[in-house]
Amino acid sequence: MQEISELYNQALEDYRQKRFDDAADKLRHVLAIDASFEDAYEALSVILYNQKKFDSAVTLIKKWVVLNQNSIMARTNLSRCYAAKGMIAEAEHEQAEARRLSWKADLKSKQSGQPKVNYDAQIARFKKIIELDPADVLGYFSLGTAYLDSGRKREAKDTFEKAVEVDPKHSSSYLGLGLALEGLGDKAKAKDVYRKGMMVADQAGDLMPLRKMESRLKVIEEAL
Known about the structure:
- With 224 residues, the chain is mainly α.
- It is built from 12 helices and no strands.
- The protein is elongated.
- The model has no long low-confidence stretch (mean pLDDT 87).
């Protein structure tokens, strides 16, 4: 187990030093030793995505999903890869599945009397992803969603703003930003964000975020 941990950490260091092929080789070695090491799936999928090896990334992540069908990050990363391949319907499906799993975990913990979802752990995990890849829009989106779900609206707003800065075409981040602004009481700015986000979603064919933003905009306008 120590060998795997050391190899994994060496792979992360290779990644930080931009030795991407060396990092990928080490992560594949980790998975050859222990095919259940989920952090290796996550890191390797990020590398493959950044190298634009989307088909390889999808194949890898599907193995991860078989290993753990309740992995929110696996679904999130799969959504990103499908989006990069232009498979919008599949990307939206995986994105919705990731959100459903998050809600399911939260509901299960409440019903069983277990402690609430450990948002601090989620936030730390997503920050780690961003540290690995500062241009990872889904890292910012996931972090913003964790902040929003945990009630930390100010941090959510700042993070979603960073997400749309990194990728102005990521429609779901406009939805998250609008929800954060609504939570902070800034409905006027939320309206502007929703309108811009709706244009982005319409151009990209992202029907789910588009419908949600249309709904939120209608609620705000009726309230005003």
